[in-house]
Design brief:
The protein has 232 residues and is an alpha/beta fold. The protein contains seven helices and 15 strands.
Length: 232
């Protein structure tokens, strides 16, 4: 079965075309009216993925589940999404090796139990949009959020702190680099050109130092679309 990638249905056509050209079946998540419109199609708001398990909010569209369940084990959770922060973050969790970085008091209970059983330690952080804020590079991270950087430092997770901003997101002042990316094998896919970012050289060097490569999906500015969730 071909690998697939879960995307925001509003991802631009150039990115979608390049994902397909790289051999991925593209599966868009259905927009939801439970959260603010700019993030209503963001995969990292509506679900959490780890290995062969996809945890989804209880009101997710059933057609989406039908489209995706042939690729991955789908687990419906109990935490409902709501518009007001932090009630839109229960699934926005960054996994880095044997650590999960998140605002622990708002992590969905089913996911907390799963992480505990999997011996994955939850590192509590003040930033709730943790997955959006964290570009994962093997067992290291790139982030513009100092709270996440400090949490990573304490856990001895190697990290690169970059300038805040310089990532677009329609409807908000700026987006976050983790939400503009996704990992498959040794490749990090980015929704836009790194050349528009002031830390482009540091980012490229950091990724290369972790034996990973960077693939750019469009010539536009980097855009936060709620992460690209790849499934083998």
């Amino acid at each position: 079965m071909e690998p697939c990638v879960i995307i925001d249905p509003r991802l631009n056509e150039e990115c979608i075309r390049n994902l397909r050209d790289n051999g991925f079946k593209v599966i868009p998540v259905t927009l939801t009216d439970l959260v603010d419109e700019p993030i209503s199609g963001h995969p990292d708001i509506q679900m959490f993925i780890h290995e062969k398990n996809l945890f989804v909010h209880p009101d997710i569209d059933k057609k989406f589940i039908k489209n995706i369940e042939k690729y991955i084990n789908v687990i419906q959770c109990e935490t409902k999404l709501k518009k007001e922060y932090p009630n839109d973050i229960p699934y926005n969790i960054a996994i880095v090796g044997n650590f999960a970085i998140h605002k622990k008091s708002f992590t969905d209970k089913t996911i907390q139990d799963y992480l505990l059983n999997a011996k994955i330690n939850i590192l509590d952080t003040q930033q709730g949009y943790t997955k959006c804020s964290t570009l994962i590079v093997n067992n290291s991270i790139i982030t513009s959020n100092k709270s996440i950087r400090d949490t990573a430092q304490h856990a001895k997770i190697e990290n690169l702190l970059i300038s805040d901003g310089f990532v677009d997101i329609p409807g908000y002042s700026h987006g976050l680099i983790g939400g503009a990316s996704g990992n498959y094998g040794d490749t990090i896919y980015l929704t836009g050109s790194i050349d528009h970012h002031p830390n482009k050289n540091e980012i490229k060097s950091f990724i290369k130092s972790k034996d990973m490569q960077l693939k750019i999906l469009s010539n536009n500015r980097i855009t936060d679309t709620g992460s690209l969730f790849f499934i083998e």
